[in-house]
Design brief:
Blueprint (H helix, E strand, L loop, with lengths): L1 H26 L12 H13 L3 H12 L5 H11 L3 H15 L2 H14 L3 H14 L4 H17 L1
Helix pairs in contact: 2-3, 3-4, 4-5, 4-6, 5-6, 6-7, 6-8, 7-8
């Protein structure tokens, strides 16, 4: 008789134990690693596409994703923020691009930002000169420098 009682509770205990393990496994934290199928350059390309179609928030998101591995993305972020009239964040993005890449477009665009705000014209002129120095064949940079210089001389 004693034998039957032990055998009778054993399958029940195993069933309860099995259910508890199932419940516990559902509540354990899981770490999911999502692999981004796009390269940083592909994020930039997608951002450019969004930007051209006027989807600035989507473009900014793509550039931010790319910026984790590709510093030139800060230049693109600055351009979108400039278009959105978020000039302070655009300034920071351009400065990050300058520090991380030394790209002449970042110098030129930050100079243009200062020019359009009408502030820091001395700094704008310095930045524009640096852009021309880094890319002397780029006519747009020379135009930026000329306009800043003219604005600066009119104020004096």
């Amino acid at each position: 008789m004693e034998k039957n009682r032990i055998l009778g509770t054993s399958p029940f205990c195993l069933l309860i134990l099995g259910l508890l393990l199932c419940l516990a496994s559902c509540s354990l934290p899981r770490i999911l690693v999502l692999n981004d199928p796009l390269t940083p350059q592909e994020h930039i390309n997608l951002g450019v596409s969004y930007e051209r179609s006027g989807e600035l928030d989507a473009a900014l998101k793509e550039y931010e994703t790319a910026s984790r591995e590709l510093p030139i993305a800060y230049l693109y972020m600055g351009n979108v923020l400039f278009q959105k009239k978020d000039l302070e964040r655009a300034r920071v993005a351009y400065q990050d691009a300058i520090e991380r890449t030394d790209d002449p477009r970042a110098y030129n665009n930050l100079a243009w930002l200062y020019y359009t705000k009408g502030t820091n014209l001395d700094e704008a002129e310095r930045l524009a000169k640096k852009a021309v120095e880094l890319a002397p064949d780029e006519g747009e940079f020379k135009d930026t420098l000329r306009m800043i210089t003219e604005k600066g001389t009119r104020k004096n």
